[in-house]
Amino acid sequence: MRERVMPADPERAAALELVHRLREVALRLELAVGEFARTTGLHGTDVRALIRLLDAERAEVEATPGWLAGQLGMTSQATTAVIHRLEAAGHVERLRSRSDGRSARLQVSDSAVDLGWRFFGPLIERLVAVELRPGERTVVADYLDAVADAID
């Protein structure tokens, strides 16, 4: 038996099983994102940008082009190209910054939110319907936060 594939230690094996299940979920979500990109004519990076912009709105973070570049791990030039594509498609709007009227903030358009909801809405509803007891939600949320921190 190869130890890295199937560890002899039961605790390590159980921890790796969670990692593999998380990877499976991530792959399935990536396939859904890819299908959305294909059906809407968007580049995968464009969809990731839209997701990050929606995340920013939920977190009440002002999403500037520089902020988006950092979130995507891209140069400002490459991010500008993404923003231009999304603007041209009517998915993103540049608005005046709330804190500095000279700079721009980015916002996903209502039509793009509607488009995303039509595609992802049924999936989101199925995920929301997954039943967990209140204590289990806390454990899962803590685990996912720790996983995200470990990736960073």
How does this structure look, described?
By secondary structure, the chain is mainly α. It is 69% helix and 7% strand. The protein has helices at 10-40, 44-59, 65-72, 76-88, 110-128, 134-151; strands at 92-96, 104-108. A two-stranded antiparallel sheet has the order 1-2. A hairpin with a 7-residue loop joins strand 1 (92-96) and strand 2 (104-108). It is elongated, with a radius of gyration of 19 Å. The mean pLDDT is 93.
Strand order of the largest sheet: 1-2
Task: Write down the oligomeric state.
Answer: single chain
Broad shape: elongated
Question: Would you identify the regions where 5 or more consecutive residues have pLDDT less than 50?
Answer: none
Query: What is the number of E strands?
Result: 2
End-to-end span in angstroms? 31 Å
Biggest sheet layout: 2 strands, antiparallel
Could you say which structural class the secondary elements and strand pairing correspond to? Answer: mainly alpha
The fraction of residues assigned to DSSP E strands is: 5-15%
Average of pLDDT: 93
Estimate percent helicity. Answer: 55-70%
Question: Number of helical runs?
Answer: 6
Task: Describe the structure concisely.
The chain is mainly alpha-helical and 152 residues long. Helix content is 69%, strand content 7%.
Q: Which structural traits does this protein have?
A:
two-stranded antiparallel sheet; 69% helix; 152 residues; mainly alpha; 6 helices
Topology, pairings included?
Elements: H1 10-40, H2 44-59, H3 65-72, H4 76-88, E1 92-96, E2 104-108, H5 110-128, H6 134-151
Antiparallel strand pairs: 1-2
Helix pairs in contact: 1-2, 2-4, 3-4
